[in-house]
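Two records follow; treat each independently.
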Amino acid sequence: MWELFVALAAWILSVALLVLPQILAVPYLIYRYQGAQLSPEALLADKTLVILLVSGILPAHLITLGIAWAVATRFGKIPIKEALRWQWGSRTSILKPIGLAVVLFALAWAITFAFGGKETDIDKIIKSSKAAALILAFLAVATAPLVEEIIYRGILFPAWQQLTGSKIAVIVVTLSFALPHIPQYRANLGVISAITMLSLVLTIVRARTGRLLPCYVIHLVFNGISSVLIVIQALFRLNAESPPPDVTPTIVWWLLGML
């Protein structure tokens, strides 16, 4: 029970840290707007503010990694690879998680388009400027997969598994990953459905293999595909007078967990 309590505390702190970018942007808001009441749409139109918010994801991720290290290794008493099960399973090759990631990406995109939905704040941020899009693309592969896999499948899942067994742990962790994003994407059922699907598959992989590394590779490749699309779209804008068609599926950016 103590292990679950500590794991839940780490998860709650990781969710709380999602507001860090907004906190870091407060001095700019005070200087720029001097207390004026603005709508979210007006704030998202401020390119400098958007870049500050996006950049603030990095320190939030780094702090989360520090918390995860302390919890998983008990402040260095356990080797990190052993604590997180950061190995390949005996029957796992790198080609399997890569292939699964490609399939999941295609399914997520199909689900998003099938259900449709309104434009989200993440979509607006991606379209706001090349700088914001490129920073997001970088974070999507540099820190987001590592942070989320360690928190959810590395710390939270084994704690629940020890108490309730694998089946219930899969359900609980899947929902724990998806539920915090529902208020953000309540107008887009496709995104919510795809989030839940991806979370379920990643957690099942963790349960079946007993390893975290395959989950990380799936997550990394999934995000990497989207990052390539984001970079292409951003670079296209360098030589285009009008914005190009949006080729990025909304689903991937919930992985950044920033709004």
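The next record belongs to a different protein.
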Amino acid sequence: MDLFTLMTFVLGASCVGGVVLAALYPRLVPSPLNRRIERIAGVAARPAETANASRRKRTVEATVEEVEELQSVKAKKRYKPSLLMRLRQANLAWSKNTYYLICLAAGATTFLACLLGLRIGLPWAAGGAIVGGLAFPHLYIGFKRRRRLKRFRAEFANAIDVIVRGIKSGLPVGDCLRIVAAETQEPVKGEFKTLIEDQTLGLTLAEAVQRLPDRMPLAEASFFAIAITVQSTSGGNLAEALGNLSKVLRERKKMEGKIAAMSAEAKASGGIIGSLPIIVACVLYLTSPAYIEILFTTLTGNIVLAVCAVWMMLGIITMRQMINFDF
């Protein structure tokens, strides 16, 4: 075995090991979901000073444990949501057939762009078509989904305040939910309309509100479901529980803004470092194509290009894990 083959084997093994480690890293880190649920459960489960406070406390604790277990099971299912669930969360009225047709269109467009625009070989154009057909629709759905979840998180605390003020003024909880469904902004408006429709179909308030985290996989929605479920099963001051929940959500939003401000420089540096090799390669291809064509026309160049792409991907994933904070 010559030195080149040995080095190729070592680099390939290192790349495979790095990819496996990057793929399994989120599962190796313990999820903060249980800690979040316990924090809000402690707020919602604070008993009133009555004669049967100890008995109600035990009932609330049992309810919180049951809801916590249910939310944990749902969270594991939502870790990899199905295609239809992701389309629902992104508010896209696509069917599976429509999604597959869009993938084919994106792949054909990428193939023509690579073959006619970049003027690369047919195998590279076919590879680009496969990557484009699979990646572009997936990234678009992810972008729409993240933006919708962000808008829901920004408006959700205001919706809870509307419910709290309605309960304090003497309105039933159902009427407060209808006010939120009629007066708030999207996507909170649409989600609460769905919640009311679920109640119209025969579900109880606790059962309907437990479906909200399925449609909106956010910790805020889980907290809201726990507070409503605890109040529905064991009673208590719902206005106080939801008021405390609103304060917690606003404090979380402030903390998120502070983290975004502190990590902005690191994100900009990571974006520059990650895009610089691609920009340099494109500039070299446009200015001195003969200098860089060896990477595409020889076997050694193809191996070097593949190894560099894998290591760049691992570097980008590592930087992303370093600058993204979960709280």
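Discussion point: The chain is about 85% helix and 0% strand. How would you locate this feature using only the token line?
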